């Protein structure tokens, strides 16, 4: 046990927040596996996993499978025989929505959020910090890419654009647009001078003659086709992200047969030289290997949670605890004792819109997404959707107001009242509060529902905001990038410092606090890419009626439980 840990254990309850802040250097030096504070037991309910959503795939010359994570901003190599993983391109450069190995051995990928095509030498596969070159910029939503047989490089934009480009492999000249408005030309492959790929928004497979660019539909009948690749015999493999089907398609006739069916939220595929088919599932963070003859499949890496964000605990009629998790590509429930995970809905296979935060109020689960600009409401017992409000300005969290409106916390630093039908609030109705510094979470201060506690990640503090518009009150300050907020049965607030991994229990009335764990460093605090909200994925904290604290690891995909002894 380190001397720092011994010192922290002696702090105990009733220590001023100023003293806790002074202890920060020692805590920061503690390892992520350090023993918890004596009165609290730390358990890992769900183990970490490599990917924070897995998208682009490529088979490297050494046989490893490269998987790209847009949100996790990494390219990770998986040994398909052992499942061992290693980071090839780390944050923030990794951000790969699609990956291809170039004719010269370079690893080339699309940085979806940054709008760039990037490349690194093949030596990155063996380590050594290979340099990264930007081949194209100014292409938000850049999605899929491939080289033709002559070494010319092509890429498409999807979701944040809809176009086909030729990319200069040297990066010397800007991208050249060839087509626009195809219908979402997603994961494609080129053979000769013919490009074949799926039209995400039209449910078709299409081909493009790159010498005279135009779109020709070659197969139909898909719900949402996500990717298409060729097998050695010329057949086309295609994924349907909604149904989970992997289909083999005759490109000449359009006839399709189902090779196998996986869970929904499939995103990309790659075919190895031996014919093995690899498919990525973004909601599971898993890459599957499929036998091309039998359709038998198995995961090649450990999965679990995808991008765990907001978390809320609900007590069941039998006295158990069910956690409701916003997992970006899924809305999930987790048994608080066993850690058993169940899907309520998955993005793309349902109306779910990339949930990032979760709250519970008035018998509803409220899922917020700053990326999608919406709040969805669900019945916690049945999973049925109860309402959906779109067109919001970067909502970070939401609660139900007593007057029937939503209270929406925004990344811009406001709490707004929003009608449940999505209509605008009265023109003369000012926000409840403005000028908060990167707020990420709010909870009711008590059953009277007269004010909310808000954690301001940007200001390093927690404030109390009256819903009648009176001046806010500072509750606690001097915190290091706090995210997540929940209330213990004794009325204290719990939050986690995402940079230090310290978990604090704070008395909002006396401004005193208790350090209850130093074991979350490296598990929370996933950093965003440039242009994204600094908090990126809100760290989820939930407290059940037994006083147990659950923390979602947005950085490593884990779920941690702190139990008072």
Automatic annotation (TrEMBL):
<keyword id="KW-0732">Signal</keyword>
<dbReference type="InterPro" id="IPR011042">
    <property type="entry name" value="6-blade_b-propeller_TolB-like"/>
</dbReference>
<protein>
    <recommendedName>
        <fullName>Gluconolaconase</fullName>
    </recommendedName>
</protein>
<dbReference type="InterPro" id="IPR051344">
    <property type="entry name" value="Vgb"/>
</dbReference>
<feature type="signal peptide">
    <location>
        <begin position="1"/>
        <end position="30"/>
    </location>
</feature>
């Amino acid at each position: 046990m380190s001397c720092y840990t011994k010192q922290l254990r002696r702090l105990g309850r009733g220590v001023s927040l100023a003293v806790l802040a002074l202890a920060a250097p020692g805590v920061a030096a503690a390892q992520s596996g350090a023993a918890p504070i004596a009165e609290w037991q730390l358990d890992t309910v769900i183990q970490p996993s490599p990917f924070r959503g897995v998208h682009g795939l490529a088979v490297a010359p050494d046989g490893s499978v490269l998987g790209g994570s847009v949100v996790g901003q990494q390219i990770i190599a998986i040994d398909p025989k052992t499942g061992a993983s290693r980071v090839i391109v780390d944050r923030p450069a990794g951000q790969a929505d699609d990956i291809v190995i170039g004719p010269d051995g370079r690893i080339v990928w699309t940085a979806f959020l940054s709008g760039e095509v990037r490349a690194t030498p093949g030596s990155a596969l063996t380590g050594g910090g290979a340099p990264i070159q930007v081949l194209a910029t100014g292409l938000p939503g850049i999605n899929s890419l491939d080289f033709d047989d002559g070494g010319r490089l092509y890429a498409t934009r999807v979701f944040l654009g809809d176009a086909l480009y030729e990319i200069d492999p040297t990066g010397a000249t800007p991208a050249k647009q060839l087509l626009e408005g195809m219908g979402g030309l997603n994961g494609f492959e080129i053979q000769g001078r013919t490009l074949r790929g799926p039209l995400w928004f039209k449910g078709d497979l299409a081909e493009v003659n790159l010498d005279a660019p135009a779109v020709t539909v070659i197969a139909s009948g898909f719900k949402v086709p996500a990717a298409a690749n060729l097998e050695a015999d010329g057949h086309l493999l295609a994924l349907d992200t909604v149904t989970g089907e992997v289909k083999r398609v005759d490109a000449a006739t359009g006839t399709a047969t189902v090779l196998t069916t996986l869970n929904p939220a499939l995103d990309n595929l790659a075919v190895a030289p031996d014919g093995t088919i690899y498919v990525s599932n973004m909601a599971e963070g898993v890459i599957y290997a499929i036998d091309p003859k039998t359709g038998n499949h198995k995961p090649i890496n450990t999965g679990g949670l995808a991008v765990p964000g907001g978390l809320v605990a609900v007590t069941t009629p039998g006295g158990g605890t069910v956690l409701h998790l916003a997992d970006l590509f899924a809305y999930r429930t987790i048994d608080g004792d066993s850690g058993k995970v169940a899907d309520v809905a998955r993005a793309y296979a349902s109306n779910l819109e990339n949930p990032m935060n979760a709250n519970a109020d008035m018998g509803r689960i409220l899922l917020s997404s700053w990326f999608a600009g919406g709040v969805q409401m669900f019945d916690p017992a049945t999973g049925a959707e109860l309402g959906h409000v779109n067109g919001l300005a970067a909502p970070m969290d939401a609660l139900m107001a007593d007057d029937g409106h939503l209270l929406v916390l925004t990344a811009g630093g406001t709490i707004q009242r929003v009608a449940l039908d999505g209509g605008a609030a009265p023109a003369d109705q000012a926000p409840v509060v403005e000028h908060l510094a990167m707020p990420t979470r709010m909870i009711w201060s008590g059953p009277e529902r007269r004010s909310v506690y808000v954690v301001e990640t940007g200001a390093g503090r927690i404030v109390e905001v009256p819903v009648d518009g009176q001046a806010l009150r500072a509750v606690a300050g001097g915190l290091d990038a706090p995210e997540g907020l929940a209330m213990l049965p004794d009325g204290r607030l719990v939050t986690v410092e995402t940079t230090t991994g310290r978990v604090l229990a704070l008395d909002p009335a006396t401004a005193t606090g208790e350090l209850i764990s130093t074991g979350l460093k490296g598990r929370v605090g996933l950093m965003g890419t440039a242009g994204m909200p600094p908090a990126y994925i809100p760290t989820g904290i939930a407290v059940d009626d037994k006083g147990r604290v659950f923390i979602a690891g947005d950085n490593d995909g884990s779920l941690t439980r702190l139990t008072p002894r």
